[in-house]
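Handout, section 3.2

Students often ask what a structure token actually looks like in practice. Rather than define it abstractly, here is a full record for Glutaredoxin. The first block is the sequence as you would receive it.
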Amino acid sequence: MTAIVEIYTWSTCPFCLRAKSLLNKKGVNFTEYSIDGDEEARAKMAQRANGRRSLPQIFINDNHIGGCDDIHALERQGKLDEMLAS
């Protein structure tokens, strides 16, 4: 089974680019929601992300992972591959 990965981004956000780069490096297919300037979409994202409005916000199998620092921390801890394999 392959994990379902979703990421909310802004096209020029350096943290978004860094998080997507990690996912691409790992060969992960993901759904990207580019919400540049769309406050309604950002509000929906924040509702899913426990109120967090910063970007990116990343979900794996509908579980909120967090942002760029969070996904890189999971990678450093060796936990990201396990989450992506489920």
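Discussion prompt for tutorial groups: The mean pLDDT is 96. How would you have guessed this from the sequence alone?
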